[in-house]
Amino acid sequence: MCKGLTLAIKLNIKDISAGYGAVRALHGVSLDLEQGQTVALLGTNGNGKSTLMKCVMGMVKPDSGSITLEIDGHSHDLTALSTEEIVNLGVALVPEGRRLFPKLTVEENLLLGAFRQSARAEIERNMAFSFEAFPVLAERRRQLAGSMSGGQQQMLAIARALMSSPRLLLVDEPSVGLSPLLVSQTITKIKELKDEYSLTVLMAEQNFNQAMRIADYGHIIVHGEIVFHGDVDTLLSNKLVKSFYLGVEA
Ligand SMILES: Nc1ncnc2c1ncn2[C@@H]1O[C@H](COP(=O)(O)OP(=O)(O)OP(=O)(O)O)[C@@H](O)[C@H]1O
Ligand SMILES: [Mg+2]
Question: Domain containing 83: what range?
Fold first, then answer.
């Protein structure tokens, strides 16, 4: 990862529909991400947040619609690429539930994040950045990932994604299972990392108030459809959005 280096990246998701056999999870979803933005994908359980992230990563193929990643003026059709090719373009996912290798050490988990070809040359530097960003990982580099606390495991999952030198970071529900203080610290950390590494971030989150702290823009997804989107001020001032769709006290 090159600190301070600004590369223009843009994600355009247009009208995608996707599902799993008979289960239809997304219906005509469109969403844009501009360079340097943090966009929140808000919605309660089972509404399609993870499915949308998986579509961007090539892990679920949409039935229709397009997903285009523009990098420095070149367009890439992500629906035609494998997950590995998408990672190679500089897209990384911090998956829901972290998906660490519990029987491997912190350091080994980090190394596995560096499989992207161009990231291999940057292993040492990215490892140093990860340890700088999350000192607890340096202290516990030889501890088994499965024996770390929930918050530490989330830090490790984020650091592992950073090991692939991403330009676009997808984070699927970073706050799940964390105490309120750790939720707040994790969200703050994502913002710091974004600023430091000029990342563009798409974050799925159920914690509306925490997501709004760092997002520039938000989309609310209900039953696989974006029912409302707007900048943070618009979302924060819309009481109906908060109480009806998210169950947050307005
Ligand atoms: N592998 C799968 N096979 C069949 N149906 C699936 C699969 N994965 C997800 N679904 C269904 O697709 C819909 C959307 O699920 P998805 O995981 O995208 O929701 P989500 O918004 O991420 O929910 P959560 O907040 O609980 O993680 C749900 O109805 C879910 O049951
Ligand atoms: Mg999910």
Answer: 9-241
Domain membership flag for residue 90: yes
Identify the residues whose C-beta falls under 6 Å from ligand 1: 20, 23, 25, 43, 45-51, 96
Q: Is residue 180 a part of any domain in this protein? A: yes
CA distance 137 to 133: 9
What confidence tens digit (pLDDT) does each residue in 168-213 have? 999 999 988 888 888 888 899 899 889 988 899 999 998 888 999 9
Q: What is the spatial distance between Cα 121 and Cα 114, in angstroms, rounded to a whole number? A: 9
Angle in degrees, CA 189, 192, 197, rounded to 5 = 125
Ligand closest in space to the Cα of 221: 1
pTM: 0.92
pLDDT in tens, 42-57: 998 999 999 999 999 9
Q: What contacts 176, CB < 8 A, 6 or more positions away?
A: 96, 97, 206
